[in-house]
Amino acid sequence: MRYLALCCQALMMLIAITEIARAENLVVIVNPQSGITQLSNTDVMQIFMGKTPVFPNGKTARPVYMIETSPLRTLFDRKALNKDTIQVRAFWVRMLFTGRAEPPSELADSTSVKQRIAGDSTLIGYVTAEDVDDTVRIVYRVP
Amino acid sequence: MWKRILFLTPALLPLSMPVSAQDLEWHGFLNLVGGVLKNEPVADDSGKKQVTNYLKYTDDFTFDTQSTAGLQVSNKLDDKTSVTLQLFAAGDEGSYNASFKWLYLTYKPSQFSRFRIGRIATPVYYYSDFINVGYSYHWLSPPREIYSLDSTITGVDYVYQDVAGPLDWSLELFTGASNQYLSVLESQVDSHNTIGSVLSGSIWGWLSARALYFQTQTTLKPDYLKKNDYIGTAFDKAIAQGSLTQSQMDVLAPLLRPLVEARLAEPLALDNYKAKYLDLALRADFEQWFLMAEASKTTAEEYLYGHQHGGYITGGFRTGKVQYHLTQSRFRTKETDDVIADLHYALPANPGLEDLADAFSKSILTTFAGRIARNIETTTLGVRYDATSNVALKADVSYLKEAECFAGDTAGTGNNMLFRSGISVIF
Q1: How far apart are CA B328 and CA B23, in angstroms?
Q2: What's the mean pLDDT in B61-90?
Q3: Which of B:332-351 have CB within 8 Å of A?
Q4: What's the Cα-to-Cα distance from B175 to each of B8, B156, B161, B162, B198, rounded to whole Å?
């Protein structure tokens, strides 16, 4: 019994470490048809905070976020946007109630984000590097 | 006439095409703010020790002073056009009467620009556009030293936004008119020929700034001019102070009253005077802490209202779901030169009827000016707890200090403390 409990704890620690390692490898992706090959941190901040509605090549850019309960969301907001998730939320509340912009869609996980972006060249989102395949293109690696 | 047309245009558009429930986007906010003053305010010339006030709070706890709620619905008509309507209700001493606060059509000629036509918030200060959405800021309410006005205009607003390297910026131009009752002034306010512009921007993702200028022509109809016989009150005060006996006043009053009324007609007309507003704000935002300062100046070409300066500095630190903040704010009215000169009016040795009429009219005007003028300082320490992604709990304590605006101004001077708590919800 004690051996079983120890095995369970070890397994949970392994899962947690794996998740943390995956989360540390966060990348911003776009549809290959967007024409974008690379973005700077400034470009990413400006697009995801609604400061600009277009990519540097002039094509429409619409960000998608992950839901707030996702650890990837917390990490992205902190490392790519230099804000905590509560600050980002308050910002989009202001945009909503002043009619300036609609808050971006929020998706549950990397798979949903990748599928959505693969089908729409105007979207930009973030996933872990391990989830990237040839249906999407990495344009920025979150430090 | 054009104001009515602009106001009704957005409302008529949806009537021309069928709208299903799925086309509408609904959002709302609720701010329940309760507060109590440590001491009941005292603001008269009875000789009692003065205790400053804060809005309409008393020494009984109430939610009816600053609580607000709003329901906003938008309908996207096509890729470039949408209609937005906001229903709004405020505590205002328990009335909670709901009314249309905003009703406007948005047209986006490009991805970088938009027009709004209809009734919109007057974008005077940094938080003016969302002053009633308590969830979007750290306080229970923005400092009253700047945010005493929550007004709307009916007109046109244009915004252009763009980026240039690490800088993102926007320019807003607006024009319109309004006619509304502002409880903070206790007056019906009619403004027209309003024109203004806002330039704002941020750089490196953490430093932002905003500058506003606007001017308007205003006509006020204050309650205090309608409620009392202020000339009779001035006559009674002269008797109480021993300047005149009752029998002397019985003879002089019928002769003095028309002379005093004639002298007060123009300065109390408050008709069509020009007011200019200037506002600057600077903010630094980092992941766990922020710092912000805002300063405003209002200049009115009107005897009673003078120049008004307001400002605050605020900062906060977040740890987990809890944010602590500290704010120091200040508001000061600088009286016009005419008011200062009239304060020191001295009767000649053997005053005639005209001299007495001058003295009474100047006394009444300076009393009104003193009543309107404020010199307030507030220090607020607060906390915000984000309980869920839609609900924030807040509490704060404020130390209020009001000083005289000019020598001999005792109305409303003194100290007090305000304790508030509340909940901000978005849905």
Answers
A1: 45
A2: 91
A3: none
A4: 17, 6, 18, 22, 12
Count CA atoms closer than 13 A to B71's CA, side-chain side: 7
Let me know the angle formed at the C-alpha of A32 by B165 and A84, rounded to the nearest 5 degrees.
50
- The answer to whether the Cα torsion of B381, B201, B145, B137 is positive or negative is negative
Q: Distance between CA atoms of B363 and B304, rounded to whole angstroms?
A: 12
Note the pTM of the prediction, 2 decimals. Answer: 0.86
Please judge whether A94 and B161 are an interchain contact, meaning their C-beta atoms are less than 8 angstroms apart. no
Q: Reply yes or no on whether the pLDDT at B335 is more than 90.
A: no
Out of A2-11, B80-89, B150-159, B348-357, which region has the weakest mean confidence (pLDDT)?
A: A2-11
CB pairs under 8 A between A and B: 73
> Residue B58, class by beta-carbon neighbours within 10 Å (0-12 exposed, 13-18 middle, 19+ buried)?
middle
* Cβ atoms of A118 and A136 closer than 8 Å: yes
The encoded tokens of residue A46 equal 């400006």
Cβ neighbours, 10 Å, residue A22: 17
Q: What percent of chain B has pLDDT over 70?
A: 90
C-alpha distance from residue B111 to each of A60, A101, B23, B105, B232 (Å): 8, 11, 21, 16, 62
Q: What amino acid occupies position B339?
A: V
C-alpha to C-alpha distance for B133 and B90, rounded to whole angstroms = 12
Distance CA B147, CA B141 (A): 9
Give the residue-averaged pLDDT of B322-331: 97
Chain B residues whose beta carbon lies within 8 Å of the beta carbon of residue A89: 389
Q: Which residues contact B102 (CB under 8 A, 6 or more apart)?
A: A99, B72, B84, B85, B86, B88, B118, B119, B120, B121, B152
> What's the start-to-end Cα distance of chain B, in Å?
37
Say if B166 is an interface residue toward chain A (CB within 8 Å): yes
- In tens, the pLDDT along B78-134 reads 989 999 999 999 876 567 778 888 999 999 999 999 999 999 999 999 999 889 899
Cβ distance B318 to A86 less than 8 Å, yes or no, reads yes
pLDDT of the residue at B242: 85
Spatial contact of A26 and A69, defined as CB atoms under 8 Å apart: no
Structure token digits, residue B353: 């009827």
* Tens digits of residue pLDDT in A26-54: 999 999 999 999 999 999 999 999 999 99
Residue with tokens 């006005």: B149
CB of A59 within 8 Å of a chain B CB? The answer is no
* Residue B205 pLDDT greater than 80, yes or no: yes
Q: Are strands A123-128 and A62-66 parallel, antiparallel or unpaired?
A: parallel
Nearest residue of A to residue B390 by CA position? A89
Q: How far is B125 from chain A (nearest CA, A)?
A: 14
Per-residue pLDDT at A19: 52
| Residue of A97, A105, A142 for testing the chain B interface, max B β-carbons within 10 Å | A97
- In this prediction, residue B14 has a pLDDT band, given cuts at 50, 70 and 90, of very low
